[in-house]
DNA sequence: CATTAAAAAGCAATCGATTGTTTTAATTTA
DNA sequence: TAAATTAAAACAATCGATTGCTTTTTAATG
């Protein structure tokens, strides 16, 4: 099994009494090979079951036609959709994807990045882990002359190509929507503020309160409620307040929103009449809970495509300097029953 | 950006007035390099920001330390979990993953496979598309001396390493469970019978009927109901029958089960009292529908790990022949409200 | 028919790391 | 101190494809 030798251009050359270079050119459809011999070479290649050794080819050519992707978790809806989007776009260009997951661990993220650098990928696409505050490893990518595109969770300090969601604006709109529905005490479940996306969402929330002339109430803002369980706990705490909120913006995820909904139901607090709920991400299940959950769609698949296309675009300006560029995608508020107070 | 030249072992050698071979050996911690020089080389390598060119290394070594994965869709819970499992296991061994998606298209699947062969991956892990009936491309993998592992949706005819779910048994148990709950007319929503997994599930269904002395009723078995929409249609059709079923086994997926549930609710058919529902896959949402949906857990993450470990195991028997081997994982029935008739 | 231009094929270096073999240097033994 | 042994480093070929340059062959032109 493992010792089977593969056909190379030398084998083809030898069989046809030609020079390997001609074989190579023929296989690359160069015009400096006679059509007849070209046909002959192609035929023989097929006969001998030849396939190009991409390793050798890329080594010679100086690139790998490979894009490395690092995400916290592959099996998370948002990320797997982004990856699917990237794959969709890169595949057409003959590029391959090498996927790594950091598992939200800084150490593993650094390892992943190093592996990708070793692999000589042409580009690294990354969404950083929650633990990541230091960016030496990202700088290292750049130092190796490798293109770097950050998406979603990006390191603001590092000037690179970025594709982000406009978290601030979408959160603003979500909270405005809730206020317009008549909710007056809107609570916020925050994610780790280390991550810029969660800071932005908080800012959107604050701006919405402000623009609607509502006070900012500290006890209605719960830090680090970014899992279903943490959100459930937070909800219990919030609903037991002397002055409980009449709405909760689970800015971290739909899973958090789900946690809220479950606790509310358990405590016989009526949603949406007594409590409005808004999540984030538009997971499939938000449509089918009862009541269905208002949320924000991030266009994850499209985001992936955007990332890929950004790379190909930048590829083309060979000689010009790389200018840090940020593409911001505007997420869409999906209003559902969980916020239909009226 | 793109013209930045990377440090090679030659650069290090030149700087230290040594031979590249010594540098290489030092970096590989060979014993035939003096400890002092080894340290010096390592230090210089770090200074010059050296990283090994895996392309060159692999070319020389004759392998790529890369595993190619082909799945119908990356962003499908089951598959992304399997991939996460594979990644988890392979990462530790210093292997990389190249991921492709066939989008359920035969043509694209063939293309993916060819790319992976070109890439000289060490192993291809595949779950075939719904369109795939022909297996030349898989044979081709073998012919190139590349290890091949099929999982979940496998081509029975091709003798390779396989990791599968025991679909027959789990379906049998699911239907038995429903019958035990008192359901007497259990309908079946089938997937495309081209795929062996769907054939097996049907067999399990049939065996359950037989062993419980229930008749097989043709009009209760609906072909090709493998999306939410198709299942919804099928359900409408089933529930309008003069003698409608009192339970539906949506053997294709939980999404199908969801379709069933929605139609039942719309038609004011009470679940589980008047209609039992069982899905397949244990998607997250099955827990939170009302009622929650009985389903079957496939241990997808574990399945991925199993695939990876199978490869590493087989790696070790260098000289022995590869014996076709099948690892069958027993899925687990998760009983929930949607089948609690009593 | 000789000369020139163009087409086709061959030659050889290159990408960067690895590794079997040889040479040199250092150390040990007689 | 010379010979033998061992350690360390140098040399050179190799993996397979690509590509600039040279040579050979063929076709075209005057």
UniProtKB/TrEMBL annotation, chains A, B:
Which Pfam family name is an example for this entry? Answer: LacI
Ordered alphabetically, the record's keywords are: DNA-binding, Transcription, Transcription regulation
Looking up InterPro entries in the UniProt record yields: HTH_LacI, LacI/GalR-like_sensor, Lambda_DNA-bd_dom_sf, Peripla_BP_I
Q: Which CDD domains match?
A: HTH_LacI, PBP1_LacI_sugar_binding-like
Has UniProt tagged this entry with the keyword Phosphoprotein?
no
Q: Name one GO molecular function term.
A: DNA binding
Asked if the Swiss-Prot or TrEMBL record annotates the protein with the keyword Transcription, the reply is yes
All copies of domain HTH lacI-type, residue ranges: 7-61
Question: Gene3D superfamilies per the record?
Answer: 3.40.50.2300, lambda repressor-like DNA-binding domains
Give the protein name, as stated in the record: LacI family DNA-binding transcriptional regulator
Q: What is the lineage of its organism?
A: Bacteria, Pseudomonadati, Bacteroidota, Sphingobacteriia, Sphingobacteriales
